[in-house]
Design a protein that fits this description.
This protein has 307 residues and is mainly β. It has two helices and 24 strands. A four-stranded antiparallel beta sheet has the order 1-24-23-22, with no helix packed on it. Strand 20 and strand 21 form a beta hairpin. 49% of the residues are buried.
Length: 307
């Protein structure tokens, strides 16, 4: 399979954009801004026709919009400060019909050990309104969880049995969770979890593998590091096969963050000027032109405008 790549950078800041999730209606969740002091993250919803609509948690300086479903719910996390990535605490939220609700796992410590941030993030949500994310414990180790938006209930911690630290990054409508874990030797591995059964997913030749998105067809996306270079990866859980794919404009890292049921992928790449650019990769062998895809996404852009 081959892909057509497209770059999307918010005109408010063309130096740093990250596209994190795409739904089946062609809407994309992302943000601009590096998060450095004075360069805050600002969330947005994007149509592939290039319309950016701001989505920021009220009253705070920084928001990352990380995921969305087909039912009008978006998830992410916010920062109450913008003093720099190493010191800004993070708190999860979901947004529905323009109403923002903070979501923080009750196991998240309010006073972690010295040098450890308060971190609680929602990273994905499926059409059953089950969100997935993680929190960091007092020692800085991550623990995944699901959150039922309808009932307001958290699951027990989701910890890969081989892990010291586990991040649950995405969930599909079948309940399969994609993510990554770090083992006792400090090596990071991808995983898929289905009904409490964990499968480790390591890309060939990679020193690091992370799965960051998964669709209903069992296709996951993420990143790996091979010989010190970060590449986008596509993993077919049905066949156990990997595809490595980089944005043709990349002069550094390529990362895939999300995939929808049409196989359309979002993420980011680093260019020769040192900028981070949002990317959309569209399969070009499914009898659908990119113009048709743009028209479809534009048709549904009203969902974004309702936010």
């Amino acid at each position: 399979m081959t892909y057509d790549f497209h770059t999307f950078d918010n005109p408010a800041d063309p130096t740093f954009n990250n596209l994190l999730g795409i739904n089946n209606r062609g809407l994309i969740a992302g943000f601009y801004g590096s998060g450095d002091a004075g360069h805050p993250n600002q969330g947005y919803l994007l149509t592939t026709s290039g319309t950016f609509n701001a989505v920021d948690f009220p009253g705070v300086p920084q928001t990352q919009l990380t995921g969305l479903n087909d039912k009008g719910i978006a998830v992410g996390y916010f920062y109450p400060t913008n003093n720099g990535v190493p010191v800004d605490n993070q708190f999860g939220f979901y947004e529905k019909h323009g109403v923002f609700t903070a979501v923080n796992n009750p196991n998240t410590p309010t006073h972690p050990n010295a040098g450890v941030l308060i971190e609680n993030q929602l990273l994905g949500v499926n059409d059953h309104n089950i969100a997935v994310g993680f929190y960091n414990d007092a020692f800085g180790n991550s623990h995944g969880y699901t959150y039922n938006i309808n009932s307001g209930k958290f699951s027990a911690d989701i910890n890969d049995p081989l892990a010291v630290s586990t991040v649950a990054a995405a969930i599909n409508n079948k309940g399969t969770i994609a993510g990554f874990y770090t083992d006792s030797a400090g090596v990071t591995h991808g995983f898929l979890e289905d009904h409490f059964v964990f499968k480790t997913v390591d890309a060939p030749g990679a020193t690091t593998t992370e799965l960051l998105g998964v669709n209903d067809h069992g296709i996951a996306v993420g990143e790996d590091i091979v010989n010190g270079v970060t590449h986008g990866i596509i993993y077919d859980a049905n066949t156990g096969t990997f595809t490595t794919l980089d944005d043709p404009n990349a002069a550094g890292s390529t990362v895939f963050n999300g995939i929808n049921d049409k196989g359309e992928i979002v993420g980011f790449y680093a260019d020769a000027a040192g900028n981070t650019n949002g990317l959309l990769a569209v399969p070009n062998d499914d009898d659908k032109s990119v113009d048709d895809f743009h028209h479809h996404a534009t048709h549904f852009s009203g969902w974004a405008l309702d936010v």
